[in-house]
Amino acid sequence: MVENQLLLKKKFSTPIVAIDLMGCDVEPVAIAKSVMAAGFPFKYIFIVHESCKLPPCYEAHYASEIFSEKDNPLEVARRKKTSLTMGVQLIAVGKADAFITAGDTGTLIASSRLYLETLLPSKKLALMTKLPTLKGQVLLGDLGANIHVKAEDFLEFAKLGIAFLKASGIAHPKMGFLNIGQESTKGAPEWVKAYLLLQELSSKENVIFHGNIEPCNLFTEDLQLVITEALAGNILLKTAEGVAKMVLKALKGSLEKPLWLDWSDYPGALLVGLKVPVIKVHGYSTDKAFLSAISSIKGLLKEKVIDKMADILRV
Predict the structure, then answer these.
(1) Domain count within the chain
(2) Are 197 and 252 members of one domain?
(3) Contacts of 52 by beta carbon, 8 Å cutoff, 6+ apart
(4) What is the pLDDT of residues 104-155, one digit of tens each?
(5) How far apart are CA 161 and CA 139, in angstroms?
(6) pTM across the whole model
(7) Helix, coil or strand: residue 304
(8) SS3 226
């Protein structure tokens, strides 16, 4: 049974961020040192495998197990002996205010659904991230919290995204639905049905519905939210990252500043739908990406975004 975090949660004078240092290409000690030197107003609990020892001045928790992508995520989550599942447990028992991990997405989702409270009665979660565009930023999701989706799932993703943006100060966000064409009849039957549901939701939530948005137009349109599913969203995201790297290399030495093309300036994906901030960063993230995630958590906690989302969703 999911424990009631609202009852267990301690009120820390200084927020505590739990960070899983495993599952990343960068050495755990290097990430920990960068985090400690950054000067954010947080305390940290670093979680690593017992084979990796951190300096005694750091608060560290040591995991006894390491899992691979071949392991069943639900079984790993239930064992509670890996760095990722230990981090989720720290939030579940009220010993941390937020969590960052570069670990396996499936295990993160399974652990979160098992042990953490959700904002929606359906317990639906969505991995969402903000992408830079010529018009500002767009929130994109779901990016991997759900594999097999139906039309009603897209509706839940939209509810979470709209609530997040409204809680962040955008009263009337403009929403699009990622698709292969602009016409409302484009895509598989579930996508056509989802279009109608999103259109109806937009009217109820006082949101501007742009309709279908093609990937080629995502970075030039004035949108604040784009709804998608794991496969399409990941392909779009990783293609965009690849193009950004190519452009940076092509322009190297010709610009004083890389404008908005440095993807490590943007935090990983927020697991939207939980009552606490949980951020998933790439397995190939640098320490800079972890610092971006911490900066994002700072803003979420300061502005009480998730508390405001709960009020908006009337949970």
Answers:
(1) 2
(2) yes
(3) 21, 28, 29
(4) 999 999 999 999 999 999 999 999 999 989 999 999 999 989 988 999 999 9
(5) 7
(6) 0.89
(7) coil
(8) strand
Question: Are residues 247 and 190 part of one domain?
Answer: yes
Is residue 152 assigned to a domain?
A: yes
| CATH for 134 | 3.40.718.10
Could you tell me the residue range of the domain that residue 133 belongs to? 128-264
- Looking at the structure, do residues 258 and 132 belong to the same domain, yes or no? yes
Question: Please, where are the H alpha helices in 205-286?
Answer: 230-251
> Are residue 201 and residue 220 in the same domain, yes or no?
yes
d(CA 184, CA 206): 20
Residue by residue, DSSP assigns 135-189 as TEEEEEE-SSS-SS--HHHHHHHHHHHHHHHHHTT-SS-EEEEE-SSSSTT-SSH
As a dihedral over the C-alpha atoms of residue 211, residue 296, residue 291, residue 47, rounded to 10 degrees, the angle is -100
Q: What is the CATH number of the domain that holds 4?
A: 3.40.50
**Predicted confidence (pLDDT) per residue in 46-84, tens digit:** 999 999 989 999 999 999 998 877 889 999 999 888 999
pLDDT tens column, 266-311: 668 999 999 999 999 987 778 888 999 999 999 999 999 999 999 9
